[in-house]
Design a protein that fits this description.
The protein is of the alpha/beta class. It has a domain of 140 residues: Class I glutamine amidotransferase (GATase) domain (Rossmann fold, 3-Layer(aba) Sandwich). Helices cover 25% and strands 28% of the residues. Strands 3-2-4-5-1-10-11-16-17 form a 9-stranded mixed β-sheet, sandwiched between helices. A 6-stranded mixed β-sheet has the order 7-6-8-9-12-15, with helices on both faces. A two-stranded antiparallel sheet has the order 13-14. α7 links the parallel β8 and β9. It is globular and about 50 Å long. The chain starts with 13 loop residues before the first strand and ends with a strand.
Length: 272
């Protein structure tokens, strides 16, 4: 049985957030975090609308190459209800749940308000061996807020991004993925100026964060994690800016973090 842990205390489980791209090298890091190679891994493909079986099979093969053979495909989609008894039983037994990429809105559409999500949050809160990992859209959806629209320089105009509630396992954060590769910096700036209480995190590809105790985020991988903080901006013309008017913000803080460096998500202090 998981150790008791009050809901308002620090989570005992671990979050791993991947920025997308080639995940295979990052799975090796995840494998080292499991209590044993036989630990149960469930690949959740809800975000993957097209060919989810093929995606799950590819991840199972990748896990096998790093010594993990106990991998199953956990289906939650149009024809597989999140709260089916067999699905919930497998979720309760899993040591690691890995959420594939695709469309993050599918995750909130099928999981929000479900018993599945309640159990997922309970396991993360109370089970010190439990790992919840997501790549690309599967990572973005775990935050309090996720970005689902906004492209290029137009994201620095009023009304030109769309941010929606995520699954809420990482409160106080808005997370974006494929960050450097897809030039998503403007839309993350817009998001944190629109909601300054949120810390903006941008994960480049082949790069990730390991979040322990719900707050200490350690960078791993080959590229850079961006952290944008507008909580103490000296000027901010959002919210209320007319649509298509340019956004202005002064005094934002920006951190560029690389492998081995950490960020406290509560105090927003970085450490090498």
């Amino acid at each position: 049985m998981p150790a008791a842990n009050p809901a308002n205390s620090a989570p005992l489980g671990t979050l791993v957030l991947l920025g997308g791209g080639d995940d295979d090298p990052l799975l090796a890091r995840l494998a080292t975090m499991l209590p044993s190679p036989e630990a149960g891994i469930e690949v959740l493909t809800t975000a993957t609308q097209y060919h989810p079986d093929r995606t799950a099979a590819a991840y199972a093969q990748a896990w096998l190459q790093v010594g993990c053979a106990n991998v199953r495909h956990l289906k939650v989609d149009e024809t597989h209800p999140a709260d089916a008894p067999a699905t919930l039983a497998r979720l309760r037994a899993a040591t690691l749940v890995f959420i594939s990429g695709g469309d993050q809105e599918r995750l909130t559409d099928y999981l929000a308000g479900s018993r599945f999500l309640a159990i997922l949050k309970e396991k993360y809160q109370t089970d010190p061996h439990f790992i919840l990992a997501g790549t690309s859209a599967g990572a973005a959806a775990l935050a309090e807020v996720m970005l689902v629209d906004g492209h290029g320089w137009r994201s620095l105009l009023g009304g030109r991004i769309e941010a929606l509630p995520g699954l809420g396992l990482l409160p106080g954060v808005v997370l974006d993925q494929h960050f450097a590769e897809r030039a998503r910096y403007p839309r993350l700036l817009h998001a944190v100026l629109a909601q300054p209480h949120l810390l903006g995190l941008g994960l480049s590809e082949e790069t990730g964060l390991i979040v322990r105790q719900g707050r200490i985020a350690e960078v791993f991988g080959d590229e850079v994690v961006f952290a944008v903080d507008a909580a103490h901006a000296t000027h901010n013309n959002l919210p209320g800016l007319p649509t298509r008017a340019p956004i202005s913000g002064h005094g934002l803080r920006l951190h560029l973090l690389v492998a081995g460096q950490t960020l406290d998500l509560l105090t927003r202090v970085v450490s090498a």
